[in-house]
Amino acid sequence: MPGVTDAGAVCTPPLEGECGDYFYSIPGQTSPNDADANDANFNIVDNGYFRTASIRLLTGRSFLPTDTASSPHVTVVNETFARKWWPAGDAIGHTVLFGGRGENGNLLQIVGIVHDTKQFSLDSAVQPELFFPETQSPAQAMVLLARTAVDPMSLASSAEQAIQTIDKQVPVRLHPMSYFVERTLQQRRFITLLLTIFAGLAMLLAALGIFGVAAYAVTSRRAEIAVRLALGAEPGRVKTWISAQILRRVAAGCAIGIAGSLLSRQIVSRFLYGVSAEDPAVLTGACVALLAVAAIAVWLPARRAAKIDPMQTLRAE
Known about the structure:
Helices cover 45% and strands 17% of the residues. The protein is α+β, with helices and mostly antiparallel strands. A hairpin with a 7-residue loop joins β6 (95-98) and β7. The model has no long low-confidence stretch (mean pLDDT 86).
């Protein structure tokens, strides 16, 4: 189709899990009869998948049309798999026995190593993975990928028609790759929204609390404030004095909060991706925001304190 630059097929595309997982052993290093059997994820692809998905080939080769059912069976592994067994980087040419205890298994030769791919979610750890050519390990269902030079959804209707000209019974669901990325972030975004709402409520409660404390401090120290004003203290200095006393306590609370956030960074980091739980800019911004809210909350009580009539207050006392 015009606008399509590459096409390939895979059993399970990135961020959608694995096609399956099974036991394997490395001849000369492990045995299928070992008590602790190794297992790895596997995926089934055609010879255009890696190119279409922009999964970089690090060394060796990809699958070829000559990799047929009658030719020696081959596999391409991800770099996590290769690094686990051959840290020196000499995985090409070695063999993998794919099968569990008591099975004859299938002997596969490693012909290529590809860059790690996130198969489950953006923040999941990459697992050892083997790729099998579809010509040697046919799958019951495959997902077709197409790389386009234009907006992929602008080709949706044409792609559906092209597929249905081959087989009208095939159900067609078309999505851009961004759809799968967004889907992996839905739960994280929902949790982030809840945390944002709770943080906003906490900020509102903090503002109300600071306002209440400042108002009580002004009421309980009216006589002291009146004496200061009677002795010549400027109203602006009184406002600054009241505000500074409250803001010092808020700053101390920020310091305690930063210490608490650093202690709980292991818990918080589970909800983050691409952001550090110890990001100084975030921690500084939170403190600045809280101090700004505190300054606004204490402004009205401090303003009232500066407007106290010293003579009337002292007579009442």
